[in-house]
Amino acid sequence: MATRATHAHVRDLAVNLTLRELKGKYKRSVLGWSWSLLNPLATALIFTMVFKIFFAAATPLGEPSGLQNFPLFLLCGLLPWNYLANGLNGATESLVANGNLIKKVYFPREVLVVANVASWMVPLLIEFSVLSVLLLVFGNFVLPWLPLVLLLILVQTGFVLGIGLILGAVNVYFRDVKHLIGILLQALFYATPIVYSLSQVPEQASLFGLEVPVRSLYRLNPMVPMVEAFRDVLYDLRFPPLGDLLYVLGWGLACMAVGLLVFSRLEPRLAEEL
Amino acid sequence: MTAPVAVSVENLSKRFRLYHERNQSLKASLVRGRRARFEELWALRDVTLDVHEGTTLGLIGKNGSGKSTLLKTMAKILRPDRGRISVQGRLSALLELGAGFHPELSGRENIFLNGSILGLGRKELKRKFDEIVSFAEVEPFLDTPVKDYSSGMYVRLGFSVAINVDPAVLLVDEVLAVGDERFQRKCKEKFADLQADGRTVVIVSHDLGAVRNLCDEAVLLEDGRLERAGPVGEVIDHYLGQVHRDRLDEGGLGARWGTGEGRIERIEVLDDRGAAAVLRTGDPAVFRLHYQTPEPLERPVFTMAVYSVEGIHVTEPSTRDAGLVPDKIEGRGHVDLRVDRLLLVPGTYDIGASLTDLTGAHSYDVRHRAFRFEVAPGTPAERHGVVSLGGRWEGEALE
Ligand SMILES: Nc1ncnc2c1ncn2[C@@H]1O[C@H](COP(=O)(O)OP(=O)(O)O)[C@@H](O)[C@H]1O
């Protein structure tokens, strides 16, 4: 009974803190929430210009959807990517930014990380809704696939949350984690098929005279099958390979488990290290 | 008859790490191959105490003695390194009012936010919402972002939410001294209600007068150790005995200036048994100023000033105002201010003293708030304000 009340309270707290993040996000800006949509659209526009005009890259053809539209191709990968990048950056800062609260009030601290990640999930859902409308307009009948999209978001959330818990707590001890994460995310962005497609990555390449299975190594990055799965479902309208799904699911669960473990180890000293 | 234990502290020790460089960088640890070096500091050492239900306990001690650390450990904000703490029932900690307010959100939104941070469920908050708002007196500003609140409104709202958590155990760190006087009175009333209601309260305060007024029991910490625990009067007297000795050693704490042609050597407070650190309301007292002059001083004036520990300038009797101006003083001696009935209400007070010429333009020696003493409850048994008028109530209804 007592624990039930506590669970309800922690949920209330998570919701309230998420609302606080959301309300705070665009409070002082003129366009407010529109930024959440304008940002990915602007990025899509920029990359489309760069890749279609300067690079004159071929636009991947959706199989079996038949869709061939570079901005939409891009957005299908960019939105999950933004969720990862924003979520990890936000989670990293979430404890330090609420340092005063942690030092003055007791509550389960992981709620701060959860609320921050959740506050990025809300714009993601809005963005995906808009993207779905655009896809419908361009002839991709995505509606039956949306439940799978939600499932993928859930798996990715496990991934973001787990790593976010670690980064948030470690950042209290080492404040330069946030700079490091900026650089790592930048590298990871180009190591993920967002502005290009997986088929453009060579199977093999010779490096220093050695034949290296580039594609296989590349696919170890869990964001590769993650983004590919989103794109399969939304752009190509096909079921992602089961192996890929299991692989990302495994990553999601493993990240959550390790994240919770590390967090519980670092949590006791948070208030005094801040 | 002993009430059940509400807060139990067993062999509690708490250690902090003090880093040599505050800026914790990966570089430092990479260079050394491990985390930045640190020293250990035991802020609490083997503290054991029980707070019984319905008790108001004051934690006292010098700065850095571990009072806040103990309070924060009770609040679960800090984790003990050794020993155990257990708290029965819901706990609310008033460590900082309005911690967790978001400046951009409205008062209404912040009530829900802060309430849930402090442990109130949504339904409970809805039920208590009106009470919180009316206690804080912020009705007209409910939809204004709190960044536009005055600091008074801000702390009122913070206090109101925290106190309405309806805790079984309330932890308070110095925050009762916030807001204007009217709100302070309201806080104290609310506080008294909680006490009357049998809630357990633990207070950290530097204001010994307030501790004496509010608490039943006190714990004196010294260097993280429990030095003394017991009824509030006893513990405070013990502490003041210590502080008193320390002060004499240090030669007084306040500012001092003057030409030095004459000096106030020492200030002494005496009751009918001799030198005392604690006086009692209604009892006789003598304030003795010891002076020394290398040169003869003509027509000097002795003045003594009394301040409450909060800084209220209570009174400033001088020999000039009393029409007593000696032609000349020389060498060592003392003057006494004899008080037949001390009409200060219980609390902590500071005395300053000065030796000047008749015009007051020339200061030989001025010692600001150089001596601290304590007033314990006596007769009249008054508690609030600074002075008693020493009056008597009469009336048929009272007979
Ligand atoms: N977060 C912290 N990190 C390191 N040392 C601390 C920290 N908090 C308190 N201390 C140290 O612990 C000791 C006890 O502090 P505190 O409990 O605040 O004393 P008090 O409340 O009695 O003034 C002090 O020496 C203080 O410097």
Spans where pLDDT lies below 50 across 5 or more residues of chain A = none
Please tell me the CATH architecture of the largest domain in chain B by its name.
3-Layer(aba) Sandwich
Main β sheet profile of chain A: 2 strands, antiparallel
Q: State the oligomer.
A: heterodimer
Tell how many strands the DSSP assignment of chain B holds. Answer: 19
- Evaluate the radius of gyration of chain A: 20 Å
Distance between the termini of chain B: 34 Å
Radius of gyration of chain B, rounded?
25 Å
Identify the CATH class of the largest domain in chain B: Alpha Beta
Series of secondary-structure elements of chain A, N-terminal to C-terminal? HHHHHHHEEHHHH
Helical amount of chain B:
10-25%
Q: List the bound ligands.
A: adenosine-5'-diphosphate
Number of helices of chain B: 8
The CATH topology of the largest domain in chain B is given as Rossmann fold
* Strand line-up in the sheet with most strands of chain A: 1-2
Compute the number of strand runs of chain A. 2
Shape of chain B: globular
Low-pLDDT stretches of chain B = 248-252
Relevant terms:
heterodimer, A: 274 residues, mainly alpha, two-stranded antiparallel ribbon, 11 helices, 2% strand, globular, B: 399 residues, alpha/beta, Rossmann fold, Coagulation Factor XIII, Chain A, domain 1, 2 domains, 6-stranded mixed beta sheet, 24% helix, binds adenosine-5'-diphosphate
Describe it for me?
The complex is a heterodimer of chains A (about 270) and B (about 400). Chain A is an all-alpha fold and about 270 residues long. Chain A has one domain (about 70-275). Chain A has helices at about 1-25, 35-55, 70-95, 100-105, 110-135, 145-175, 175-190, 215-220, 225-235, 240-265, 270-274, and strands at about 205, 210. A two-stranded antiparallel ribbon of chain A has the order 1-2. In chain A, helix 1 crosses helix 5 (about 110-135) and helix 9 packs across helix 10 (about 240-265). In chain A, about 40% of the residues are buried. The mean pLDDT of chain A is about 90. By secondary structure, chain B is α/β, with parallel strands linked by helices. Chain B has 2 domains: about 5-245, P-loop containing nucleotide triphosphate hydrolases (Rossmann fold), CATH 3.40.50; about 255-375, Coagulation Factor XIII, Chain A, domain 1. Chain B has 8 helices and 19 strands. In chain B, helix 3 crosses helix 5 and helix 4 (about 120-135) packs across helix 5 (about 150-165). Chain B is globular and about 75 Å long. Residues about 250 of chain B have low confidence and may be disordered. The chains are: A mainly alpha (about 270), B alpha/beta (about 400). Chains A and B meet through helix 1 and helix 4 of A and helix 1 and helix 3 of B. Bound molecules: adenosine-5'-diphosphate (ADP). Adenosine-5'-diphosphate binds near residues 41, 61 and 63 of chain B.
